[in-house]
Structures are given as structure tokens and as C-alpha cells.
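Let's practice the habit of predicting before peeking. Look at the sequence and jot down your guess about where helices and strands might fall. Then scroll down.
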Amino acid sequence: MNVPEYFVGIDIASLTFYAAVGQVRENGWEIVIKPKEFENNQDGFTQLIGHLNQNKVFPPEAVICMESTGVYNEALAYFLVVNGYNLAIEPPLDVKRAFHPIGHKSDPVDSKQISEYAYRFFDQLRPWRPRDEVIEQIKVLLTLREQCVTQSTGHKCAVNALQRKVVRTPMAEAIHQEAIKELSKHIKDIEKEIDRLINDDPSSHNLHTLFKSIPGIGSILGAYFLVSMHTAPDPYSYKSLAAYIGICPYEHSSGSSINGKATSRHFGPSAMRRLVYLASLSVCTHQPQFRIYYLRKVDAGKPKKVVINNVANKLLKIVCAVARTKTPYVRGYRSINPSLLIVNQPLTVS
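Done guessing? Here is the structure:
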């Protein structure tokens, strides 16, 4: 994407949003259209397009940038892409860190800062595109499943505590038990619907089947990887995927006084990170090649959690290779260094 002439910054809230337009000038960049407020609905979206067209800010010459605010900006994002605008949705923390925390803090000011951020970091902006409908539905159902699992765990802990009390309360215990039963039914229904959505979509079904060929990866974790292929910044890079999940160790050192151990920051989807951890435990127990690696590293003095995290990164490497090559995992596969192969060696007769 070529450097555009206009940079539109949008600061969006639940009911309204502000849009400011900056333009590239000979001496740099400056705001040429002051922030204007619009309603966060279809009428407001149409007024925004009219406002931009009136000021000759057309799609080929502009990029629109906004912060990721969940469902607040979703409808506007779809509307702008349909109308041909180049759109980037950036993490709010990245925008915040680009400016000194000095001066006024308001929606109009934020919209101007987002416009400036888009100009300064244009080469790092990632064009936003809506996910496929099937992938979006699977993502929502996975989130709902995690919420049901969390609630079910809470009820189970409450029942366990009530049953240990000297003075029992049968009604409270019965309500918790009924909630656990109902949530278990919901979880099973959600999993069936996820499987149906995947099986009805050929491309999703093929990729999901490839993921399940990898040891330790079942239907739910495979569905998470399916979604991550459309969500992670670079899904075919296992390092990028590890950073997205939150299991990528980062160095922490400075000078001679700070020399901390490399550790993961635990950012990213916690449910997916937990399932990857459980998959790593499973292969370390049941898969010989991972078991041998685990025991060898532990015997060498490596902490068990570090070894398990290494195994998790190995699994991600396999996931990315399977997704990139579109071929299933081959158990016991060993790669060969091409330099060790002898090409066109003449036959010798003894």
C-alpha cells in the first residue's frame, strides 16, 4: 500500500465517535480537518462518508485508523471496508505509548492523536479485513464455551465448600448442582455446533483435520488454531504464533545490574494458552519422542516448566508447518540436511 495523502483518526465510544483528518504536507503532517462528532450507528456512518467526500478525502488517497474497542467499532469497520477505504485497527496500548501522557485527554484529542499515529507508523499498520463468517461464529462459540467452563468450575468449588460445612444447606447445594448440570449440557451443545460449523465448511474442515493429526491436539484446541490462522499477525510463523498466545520467552537484561531470566509475558488468549500447556503435558507423558526430550532436559537440570514451555513451542512449530504445507503430521518424521545428500554419485562395481 502506497503512502496516502490523508490519515483519518477515529476515536470511537459506545454511542458516538470523533473523526479527525491529517494531511501530508511539505513540512510534515498536520490536522487539516478538525475532529467532528458522529453517532455510532448507520446514520452516523453515512454522515462520515459524506463528510469525507465533501472534503475530497476519497478511499484511494486515505487510510483510516482506529483503536480496537471490541464490538463498539465492529459495525463501523465493516461499513468502511465495504465502501472501499483502507482501514487499520490498532491496539490501544500501542497508540497510548506513542505519545507523552501530558496535556488534555478527550475524544477529539484522541482522534487527532490516532491520525498522527497512523502517519508516524504507517509502515507498521496492518490492513484490517473482516474474518469469514464461519470463523467469526467459531470464535464467539469458543469464547462462550470458556465462559460456561469458568462458571461450571465456580459452581463445583462452591458445592465442594458447602458439602464440607458442619451445617448443611440442601437448597443451596441443589441449586449449584442444577447449574452444573445445565452448564455441562450447554458445553456439549456448543462443542457440537462448533463441529457442525467446521464440517460444513470444506476449507475449515480440511485444516482442522490436519491440526488433529498432531499429537496432543484435539477438536477444541484445533478449533482455536483454526481461528488463530485468521487472527494472529503472522500465523505461519511459529514465533509470531507463540508471541500471540503468550508462551514466547523474552530476554530481560540491562547493563550489569539487571540480568533476569527469560520469561513469557502471558499476554494473549488465556484459554488457548492453557490448552496448549495441557497438550504439552500430554505429549510429554504419552509420546515417546517428546517424552525422551522431556526426560533428557530435566536430567540436564532444566526446570520442568521451562521444558514444558519448550515442548509447547515445538508443537506450535509443527502446527505452522502443517498449516503452511497443507499436509498431515507424520509421526516419527526426521528431516535430512540437504548438504549431507550425495547427488549423482556414480555406481561402483566391486
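How did you do? The first strand starts at residue 6 and ends at 12.
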